[in-house]
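Anyone up for a design puzzle?
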């Protein structure tokens, strides 16, 4: 999808792009190419066309609004054929190697300055070229055609190069013959040239039926040196185009991301990632690694891709994987397929030889896997570890490389893991002081601190924490919070910046508000558009995200009196919009906002009113707050109000106003506030809280419970 978006943008089209989970640096590359990234599956302008990837089913409810407006929704491959009708299309096809061969051909033609357009289905390593490019003058278009979704049937290339034909995509093609027929039909529609590997089954068919346009190229089909086979296809294709690339040094080809990528290498360990997800690809990849490092113990971590493929080819998978010395699995990556136990990892385990079957296991937790790996390194011999699969196993591969670079320190590995995965402006700061980021102004530093600039950054940070078992917490404006003097040994995330603080009015007299928006600003924006009911937010010193987590309130109101729905990032990485009426809320608590991360919310007040009347109500509340609450630095109300009596009254009755420990003092204005007179430490505040709690218990028999949080800890031990 990304190469298509880049190509269209370069041709002068206005392009908007949505994805359930964009990643860096692809998002930044799309923006650089002029593509507008949208964070909802609804365009900012009415589109002429909508193009969906094959991972989005035609029945997807998100497409319904376009169809009801009469906007045509295209499947990607079908649209690709439509826009390339006037081009001389060079199509690279086959069961394996399409992306690498198309990338190599594109790179070689670029090396000699040949003018052409192209779209490659993967990123070049180190991003030496963009994945898509448009030429305004050249008729040539280089494409890889995907047979997996059937859209190959829409294409009629000028030149077709086929690399191989192994039975794959068994959910669509019920037999090898059915897949072969798809390629033969493409041969019929090819205008000028067919290039086929010499000695392949399809060469005979092509020579018999299409002899006038068929040429063969040397390709050792059973060779483990698949890069040489790809190079032979590239040279033959360029020659058929009438282009001389004999001067190109193919040893300089950078390769494609996730294709035989060496992520870490020293004398003891080599970590390699590959996209292989078919037995023939695994055979070639394992053979290549054996040839390159014959003395190394060979471990493989494999993630089956799709239940249908695993179920149909389990015996073949097991046969090829039996060539390794140690084998571990991740659960089957289903893509868009429904769960099928027959296509699970167990179907592979049962077909393995006893040598591997007894030690193979399905891995769920990366750190536990790494510990087991470290414990098993007894032989002292060098090892290479292959992470293989087309799902999300790349996370494990990069995590292993990061752990190797950091000598097993997962906190240092966290930094390596995130390199090039978050935006440049996100930042990842080590030992960042937190005291200045809270309203109390006390506390130590965070081991890591980040301010994600968008949803992609946030999800990637969470992903890194999850895989490397790095603790994390969210920090809003830092009200209702005490940071311990020893800080926080993990990642502190703060949603700060324009993406998170956006406040927009909707036509139904509601506001859509980002989790990083300040409550005071929400109040002011509501006043400007004459919405009442938001006035109580004026004096609460926090952001919407923190207010939702704490169910913040004042003047008899609570934030959830305004909430229509909240959009949460859940622990499994999905995003869910939960109606306020279905949420589990209580006094200064919201379970969903503790389990997940609030991203934004829809807020609705009490209707409309003249802005002058709203302003008057705000000023009245502000005046009351100023007269009843201290102006010095504080965390707000320290203790929760017990039933039928206020904590402030209990503290006042106990004669605690003005009581102090170090630089912390109980406010004379409001007993439930502890203020920082300047230079207070977190221990000063906590010691004073202990004193207040103990005195109230002794005099009234009531146990006060903290309303503020203690970052990364619970209060039981500090207040005991």
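Challenge accepted. My sequence:
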């Amino acid at each position: 999808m990304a190469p298509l978006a880049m190509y269209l943008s370069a041709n002068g089209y206005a392009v908007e792009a949505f994805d359930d989970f964009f990643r860096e640096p692809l998002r930044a590359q799309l923006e650089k190419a002029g593509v507008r990234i949208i964070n909802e599956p609804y365009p900012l302008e009415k589109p002429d066309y909508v193009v969906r990837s094959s991972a989005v089913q035609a029945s997807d409810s998100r497409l319904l609004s376009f169809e009801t407006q009469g906007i045509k929704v295209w499947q990607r491959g079908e649209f690709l054929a439509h826009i390339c009708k006037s081009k001389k299309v060079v199509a690279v096809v086959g069961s394996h190697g399409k992306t690498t061969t198309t990338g190599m051909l594109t790179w070689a033609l670029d090396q000699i300055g040949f003018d052409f357009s192209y779209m490659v289905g993967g990123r070049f390593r180190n991003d030496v070229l963009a994945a898509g490019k448009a030429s305004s003058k050249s008729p040539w278009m280089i494409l890889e055609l995907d047979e997996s979704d059937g859209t190959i049937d829409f294409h009629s290339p000028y030149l077709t190069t086929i690399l191989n034909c192994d039975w794959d995509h068994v959910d669509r093609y019920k037999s090898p013959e059915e897949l072969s027929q798809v390629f033969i039909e493409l041969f019929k529609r090819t205008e000028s040239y067919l290039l086929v590997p010499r000695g392949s089954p399809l060469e005979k068919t092509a020579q018999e039926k299409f002899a006038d346009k068929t040429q063969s190229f040397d390709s050792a089909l059973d060779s483990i040196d698949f890069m040489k086979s790809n190079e032979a296809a590239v040279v033959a294709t360029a020659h058929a185009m009438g282009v001389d690339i004999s001067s190109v040094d193919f040893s300089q080809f950078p390769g494609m991301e996730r294709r035989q990528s060496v992520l870490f290498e020293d004398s003891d360990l080599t970590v390699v990632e590959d996209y292989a997800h078919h037995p023939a690809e695994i055979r070639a990849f394992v053979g290549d690694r054996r040839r390159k490092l014959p003395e190394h113990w060979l471990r493989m971590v494999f993630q089956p891709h799709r239940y249908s493929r695993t179920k149909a080819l389990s015996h073949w998978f097991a046969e090829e994987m039996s060539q390794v010395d140690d084998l571990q699995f991740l659960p089957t990556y289903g893509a868009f397929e429904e769960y099928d136990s027959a296509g699970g990892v167990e179907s592979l385990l049962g077909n393995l030889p006893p040598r591997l079957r007894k030690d193979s296991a399905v891995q769920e937790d990366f750190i536990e896997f790494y510990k087991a790996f470290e414990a098993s390194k007894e032989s002292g011999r060098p090892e290479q570890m292959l992470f293989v699969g087309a799902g999300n196993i790349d996370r494990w591969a990069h995590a292993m490389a990061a752990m190797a670079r950091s000598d097993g320190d997962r906190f240092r590995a966290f930094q390596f893991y995130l390199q090039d995965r978050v935006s440049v402006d996100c930042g990842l700061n080590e030992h960042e002081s937190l005291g200045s980021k809270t309203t109390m102004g006390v506390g130590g530093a965070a081991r890591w601190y980040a301010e994600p600039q968008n949803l992609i950054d946030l999800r990637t940070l969470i992903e890194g924490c999850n895989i490397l078992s790095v603790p994390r917490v969210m920090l809003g404006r830092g009200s209702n919070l005490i940071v311990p003097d020893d800080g926080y040994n993990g990642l502190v995330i703060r949603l700060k910046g324009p993406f998170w603080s956006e406040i927009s009015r909707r036509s139904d007299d509601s506001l859509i508000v980002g989790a990083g928006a300040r409550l005071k600003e929400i109040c002011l924006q509501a006043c400007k558009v004459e919405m009442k009911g938001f006035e109580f937010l004026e004096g609460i010193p926090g952001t919407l995200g923190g207010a939702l987590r704490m169910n913040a309130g004042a003047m008899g109101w609570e934030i959830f009196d305004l909430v229509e729905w909240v959009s949460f990032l859940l622990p499994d990485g999905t995003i869910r919009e939960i109606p306020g009426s279905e949420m589990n809320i209580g006094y200064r608590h919201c379970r969903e906002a503790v389990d997940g991360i609030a991203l934004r919310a829809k807020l609705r007040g009490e209707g409309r009113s003249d802005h002058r009347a709203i302003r008057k109500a705000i000023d009245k509340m502000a005046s009351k707050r100023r007269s009843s609450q201290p102006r010095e630095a504080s965390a707000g109300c320290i203790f929760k109000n017990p039933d039928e009596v206020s904590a402030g009254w209990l503290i006042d009755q106990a004669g605690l106003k003005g009581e102090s420990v170090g630089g912390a003092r109980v406010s004379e204005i409001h007993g439930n506030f502890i203020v920082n007179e300047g230079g207070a430490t977190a221990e000063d505040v906590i010691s004073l809280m202990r004193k207040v709690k103990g005195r109230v218990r002794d005099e009234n028999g009531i146990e006060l419970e903290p309303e503020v949080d203690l970052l990364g800890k619970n209060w039981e031990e500090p207040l005991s």
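A detail worth pointing out: Residues 17 and 37 are 5 Å apart (CA to CA).
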